[in-house]
Design a protein that fits this description.
alpha/beta, 125 residues, 8 strands
Length: 125
């Protein structure tokens, strides 16, 4: 039996702010957007590499303040990503990474809707 990675659904309230953060800052791509009608809420998927996240304006989809973890297993990727984010010029965030006592290096960012994404890698033992 094989399972694919879960796809979290994060609540958002403003499509332009979501795109500015996820696409403009984090470097994800919009894979698709769906609305039942032009004036209805949007439901969309963004991705970067194998990481996929669904973002929804629909009431009841996700809860603001959700926390997800995204593993970056290769040495140096987390640090390179952190440097790229800091150099991006995004005015709302200058993330740093932190080594945790449980053996992970982590970098956490918070989107405009209160959701947190922790990018991490396990440190050698």
């Amino acid at each position: 039996m094989r399972f694919a990675p879960p796809v979290p659904i994060l609540r958002m309230f403003d499509l332009d702010k979501a795109k500015d953060f996820y696409v403009g800052f984090l470097g994800f791509e919009v894979d698709w957007e769906h609305r039942f009608e032009p004036d209805m809420p949007v439901y969309m998927q963004v991705s970067r590499g194998d990481c996929r996240i669904h973002l929804s304006e629909h009431h009841g989809d996700g809860t603001p303040g959700t926390v997800i973890r995204v593993e970056m297993p290769d040495d140096g990727e987390l640090e390179s990503y952190q440097q790229a984010l800091r150099a991006s010029g995004y005015k709302y965030y200058r993330p740093d990474w932190q080594d945790q006592e449980w053996g992970c290096r982590e970098m956490t960012v918070q989107d405009p809707f209160g959701n947190r994404i922790t990018f991490y890698r396990n440190l050698p033992k």
